[in-house]
Amino acid sequence: MALIITDECINCDVCEPECPNGAISQGEEIYEINPSLCTECVGHFDTPQCMEVCPVDCIQKDPDYVEDRDSLYEKYLALTKGSGAA
């Protein structure tokens, strides 16, 4: 499942640089996660790095984008194809 940033976000800027897929960007009001780029850090780390650094715990699993670990890994492979990251 992709992750989502809730409206409790305080725009502290710590999550964006932690995302290895570039899935996090500043939205109109708060940071947003692009579900097509989010792999919950599968393939890069054991845990989602944005969740690890978020000081207000406003990042959670997005129920609109249900994916299992295998699907997330396949997305990781597709995103890193040709980059030498795999």
Structure description:
It comes from Methylocaldum szegediense. This is 4Fe-4S cluster-containing protein YfhL. Keywords: 4Fe-4S, Iron, Iron-sulfur, Metal-binding. With 86 residues, the protein is an alpha+beta fold. The protein has one domain: Alpha-Beta Plaits. Helices cover 20% and strands 14% of the residues. The strands form 2 sheets. Strands 1-4 form a two-stranded antiparallel ribbon. The two termini are 20 Å apart. The relative contact order is 0.26. The model has no long low-confidence stretch (mean pLDDT 94).
This entry's quaternary arrangement is single chain
Task: Give me the Rg, rounded.
Answer: 12 Å
Number of domains: 1
Strand and helix order = EEEHEH
Stretches where pLDDT is under 50 for at least 5 consecutive residues are: none
Structural class call reads: alpha+beta
Tally of alpha and pi helices = 2
Distance between the termini: 20 Å
Shape annotation = globular
CATH topology, by name, is Alpha-Beta Plaits
| Name of the top-level CATH class | Alpha Beta
Helical percentage:
10-25%
Largest sheet: 2 strands, antiparallel
CATH architecture type: 2-Layer Sandwich
Mean pLDDT across every amino acid position: 94
Percentage of residues in DSSP E strands: 5-15%
